[in-house]
Amino acid sequence: MTNPLIQIDDEVREMTDEEYAEFMANNPDWVAAEKPTTKTTTK
Amino acid sequence: MATTTNYSWTTPDNTAYVKDGASAIRTLGSSVDTTLFTALGGAYPGLRLIKKQTIGTGVTSVNVTGVFSATYDAYKIVISGGVGSINANIGLRLGGNTTGYYAGGQNVVYSTAAASLYSDNNVALWTRAGYATTDIISMSVELVNPFLSKFTTIQHAFIQGATANSSGQGSGFHNVASSFTDFTIIAAAGALTGGTIYVYGYGAS
What we know:
The structure holds 2 protein chains of 2 kinds.
Chain A: E1 5-8, E2 11-14, H1 17-26
Antiparallel strand pairs in A: 1-2
Chain B: E1 2-3, E2 10-11, H1 21-40, E3 47-54, E4 59-64, E5 74-80, E6 83-84, E7 88-94, E8 101-109, E9 115-123, E10 126-132, E11 137-144, E12 152-159, E13 166-174, E14 183-187, E15 192-193, E16 196-202
Antiparallel strand pairs in B: 1-2, 3-16, 4-14, 5-11, 5-16, 6-15, 7-10, 7-14, 8-9, 8-13, 10-11, 11-12, 12-13
């Protein structure tokens, strides 16, 4: 299990456990990232 | 004494003494400075690009540092391009401050023209500063006073780029009289990929 990614200017890194706990405390409704839905077309 | 064609800046004659060169350059430089200041309307006129930040891949938040300063009082933040992993609001926070954000806004549903209202009432960030869908990220924000030790105000569009959703705008303030130099955008759900954050300053002098 990995923590979500955060970006500070050009640096992208995983949140530390402390940052993740603080993030969830301030964003209680946040849900983990999902892969973009694959679009399908019908004729 | 020779002068330039358009602004009559003084330049040395061909026969002028070399020993007077420093003075001649100083005079010419001062003339250029004065003309530019007048013509442009100040030392930092108009809307100036302060920072251009590319959004990484799959990031939950982006902290943009070193953008607010004493040079400007008001700022414009725009995001172009990019996508979200799912459709979600994008919040905006000043520095690391997680309290005292207030806003009110209204949206109109595309399909029905029905109106909906929302508010941020002393929450941890402005919750609807932007919106991400799997097709586009939308953000167009104006901030006033973020660097001053005064309340910061915000005006923002809230454009949901999805046919089933809505569009509108909001405004509000940060009930904290502190100075900030950076901001963070935060996806309310999922993550952001790509796109560019542009930060502009409104010329103040």
